[in-house]
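Data deposition worksheet. Section B asks for the primary sequence of the deposited chain exactly as it was used as input, without tags or linkers unless they were present during the calculation. Section C holds the resulting structure in token form. Section D is free text for depositor observations; keep each observation to a single sentence. Incomplete worksheets are returned to the depositor.
Section A, Depositor: J.P.
Section B:
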Amino acid sequence: MIAVLILILIFGGSAFAQSGRRTKPATTPLPPPEAKPSPSPTPSLPAKSVVTAEKDQDYRCTADGTLALILDHGEVAGFTPKEVDTKAEITARPDPKYTREARKQGIQGVVVLKVLLAADGKIDRVRVVRRLPYGLTENAIMAACEIKFKPAIKAAKEVSQWTTLQYGFLIANSSIFGP
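Section C:
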């Protein structure tokens, strides 16, 4: 009798035990999300157009940090350093940044710019004399736009003066941690 009870417990217990699978609870379908009316599109500013600086073209620095091509090709009033009594004195000249593309392509060289230092202490225009590709010329122009200077003097008056700037780009001097 004891043997029968043991057999019932062994075989009967496995018959009533769970197999490990559980039935998933029935899910109720969710209502579709409500369609929210999309707000009317707000007019956005036009995207900044990238200016590619070309040789013998004049550019103006703008307040928003972009370059503007000057279309009038007339002669601009400005003295040469030999024509003034006291030459313009550059007090701060920031260095331009290397672009990733130029570093990747191994571009090195010198960008030469003629800059008109205006009598009011601002940069009037920048003329490209020698350029480099992959944004290096544009970066040199942007650095030239940040120059601080004391204007030239002629006959006891502050006057505009042209000056030539050279910006050298050497991969050995560029940082691998930024453009």
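Section D:
Confidence is low (pLDDT under 50) at residues 42-49.
The chain has three helices and nine strands.
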